[in-house]
Design a protein that fits this description.
The protein is of the alpha/beta class. The protein has 13 helices and 12 strands. The radius of gyration is 20 Å and the shape is globular. The protein binds pyridoxal-5'-phosphate (PLP) and iron/sulfur cluster. The site of pyridoxal-5'-phosphate (PLP) has 7 residues, from strand 2.
C-alpha cells in the first residue's frame, strides 16, 4: 500500500513511474515510457488497452511499425532557432524550450525527439538564458514568450522563477504563456509555493493540456483553482486523437467542463506529423466537421479554435467550416441565405 504522504509528494510520483508491459520493450527502448502513478490510476481497469488514458501514456506497436510519418521535427523547429532553445517563427512571439523533462511521456508528443532514446535530462543553463535575454533585447518586436519544453513545471520553483523573472523583466515582453501538462498528469506539483511565485509574474497566462474528460479530476481542478485564485487566467489546448477523443460527445463534455471551471478551451489541434504518431491522426476534415457539430451545442466560450501546424515551420492554420458559400451564408439549420452587406 502506498502511503498517502508518498502519493501526495510530487517527487515520489516522479520516482515511481509505471513500467511498460514487457512485450513493448522494443518500442520502449526508442520512446521510453514515463507515467506517474497518479495518471496511471485514472486508467479504467476493465479495458485498459482501449482506455484513453492508457493510450496516451503507454506504448503502442504502431509507434514503430506505422511509418507514414517519418520526420521527428516536421515543423523545422530546430532550424528556426536563432539562438539555442528559442524558436522564433512569428515576428511578435517566440517559444522558449526550458527543459526536456516531463512527468509523463505523452505518446502523441510533438517534441519526442527531446526525450527519445532516454536522452539525458536537460535544463536551460544560466549562460544559455543570458544569450536568449540578449536576443530578446535586440528583438523588441517580440512581445510574447511561450514558455514550453518538455514541461516547465518540472523545474524546481526557484529555478523556474529565475527564468520567468529574467524574461518578464525585459521591457518589450508583455505576455508569458506557460504551456504545461502538469495539472493533468501531476496536479500535486501545483503547490502553494509555486502558486505564490507565479502570482508575481506579470502578464502570465497558463496553457494546460486536457485531452479527455476523464483527465478533469477533482485533483486537477483543485490544482488549476490554486492558480486562478492568484489571478492567473488558464487556457487549454487539446490534441484531437483517433479513438481517444475524436467524437462530438467526448469533446462537448470536455469543453463544457473546462469552461464551467473557468478554463477557456483555446485550441483543438490536429496531431502533428511526427514519426511514431500516425496512428493518432484523424485527418483535418474530421476536426472541421467536429467544429461544425459544435455550432448549435457549444457557446463561443466553450468552443476552441481548430488549427494545425504546416510542415517546415509554415505556421499555424486555423480552420472554420465553410459558412460562406457562393456569396451566401449558412443558417443554423444548414440552409444558405443572403446577407444585405
Ligand atoms: C503556436 C506557436 C506560437 C504561438 O502562436 P499563437 O498563434 O499565438 O498561438 C508561436 N511560435 C511558435 C513556434 C508556435 O508553434
Ligand atoms: S508533457 Fe508535453 S513535451 Fe512532455 S511528453 Fe507530454 S506533450 Fe510532450
Amino acid at each position: 500500500m502506498t502511503k498517502e504522504k508518498d502519493w501526495n509528494d510530487w517527487h515520489w510520483q516522479l520516482r515511481n513511474s509505471q513500467p511498460a508491459p514487457a512485450e513493448f520493450a522494443d518500442v520502449d527502448k526508442i520512446y521510453p515510457t514515463l507515467v506517474t502513478p497518479y495518471y496511471a490510476s485514472l486508467i479504467e481497469t476493465t479495458a485498459p488497452h482501449n482506455d484513453p488514458i492508457y493510450r496516451q501514456s503507454f506504448p503502442d506497436r504502431a509507434e514503430i511499425t506505422d511509418t507514414s510519418y517519418d520526420n521527428l521535427d516536421p515543423l523545422n523547429e530546430e532550424a528556426q532557432m536563432p539562438v539555442p532553445h528559442l524558436i522564433h517563427r512569428y515576428q511578435d512571439r517566440a517559444v522558449l524550450l526550458t527543459t526536456n523533462q516531463c512527468a509523463v511521456h505523452c505518446r502523441f508528443c510533438l517534441r519526442k525527439r527531446k526525450w527519445k532514446d532516454d536522452a539525458a535530462p536537460y535544463t536551460l543553463s544560466n549562460s544559455e538564458l543570458s544569450t536568449i535575454e540578449q536576443y530578446l533585447k535586440n528583438h523588441s518586436e517580440i512581445n510574447e514568450i511561450i514558455v514550453s519544453g518538455g514541461d516547465p513545471l518540472m523545474l524546481e520553483t526557484d529555478k523556474l522563477q529565475n527564468i520567468l523573472k529574467r524574461i518578464s523583466d525585459i521591457p518589450s515582453i508583455k505576455i508569458i504563456r506557460l504551456g504545461t501538462r502538469i495539472p493533468v498528469v501531476l496536479p500535486i506539483r501545483i503547490d502553494a509555493k509555486l502558486a505564490d511565485m507565479l502570482e508575481d509574474i506579470p502578464g502570465l497566462w497558463i496553457a494546460t493540456h486536457f485531452n479527455h474528460p476523464r483527465e478533469v479530476t477533482q485533483e486537477a481542478l483543485a490544482a488549476c483553482n490554486k492558480l486562478q485564485k492568484k489571478g492567473i487566467p488558464i487556457l487549454n489546448q487539446t490534441v484531437l486523437m483517433k479513438n481517444i477523443n475524436d467524437n462530438h460527445e467526448t469533446l462537448v463534455e470536455l469543453f463544457r467542463t473546462l469552461a464551467a471551471n473557468r478554463i477557456k478551451p483555446h485550441y483543438l489541434f490536429h496531431i502533428d506529423p511526427v514519426a511514431g504518431n500516425a496512428h493518432f491522426a484523424t485527418g483535418i476534415d474530421k476536426g472541421v466537421e467536429l467544429i461544425r457539430s459544435f455550432r448549435n451545442t457549444l457557446s463561443s466560450i466553450e468552443t476552441p479554435l481548430f488549427a494545425f501546424d504546416l510542415q517546415k515551420g509554415g505556421g499555424k492554420i486555423p480552420l472554420l467550416p465553410e459558412y460562406k458559400k457562393n456569396g451566401k451564408f449558412e443558417k443554423l439549420n444548414g440552409h444558405y441565405i443572403n446577407y444585405p452587406e
